[in-house]
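Lay summary. Proteins are chains of building blocks that fold into shapes, and those shapes determine what they do. In this project we predict the shape from the chain. Here is one chain we studied, written as its sequence of building blocks.
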Amino acid sequence: MARRVQVFSDEAGCLTFKPPGNGVSRYFMIGTVARADLRYDVTILEKQKAYDYLREDPLRFYRTAWYLHFKFVAPRIVGPLDELLVVASSLQINRKRKLVHAAVSDVVAQVSPTVVVHTAFAQTMSDPCLQVADYLAWAVQRKYETGDDRSYALVKHLIASEFEPFAAERD
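And here is the predicted shape, written in a compact code that computers can read:
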């Protein structure tokens, strides 16, 4: 029987490729909450391990991050007969918003095993599920960026996967 699966996403970290510190993050993360079973999956990308061509184009890096995340997560949360709705937290930057929305929509449609796919974008504060995704991304980011795992310890039981596609790159 087909299900309706709702996924809510938020990101942590920045797309600036400079040495970490002074507001520049070491990691960029995409996390999703699948509402069907409230699982949380996060993809953690150490920016310095990205290939040069990705670091030179933040939008291409962003699209690749989404591709890696959703290619890993989609088969775990949705089947061929399901209907999928992905709601992503919307960026505040107007000039890049359309490009980012198109990147997310294209990637989700490309890697989802289902043919019925919808994407939407909303401000984090407008939806409780986006707020959950935001908090979980923040808790994971604090663990990785600063080593402070107090908030992470509170939500660890909700985390289904922590995928690090660049972990073996350039070690």
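What the prediction tells us: The two ends are 45 Å apart (CA to CA).
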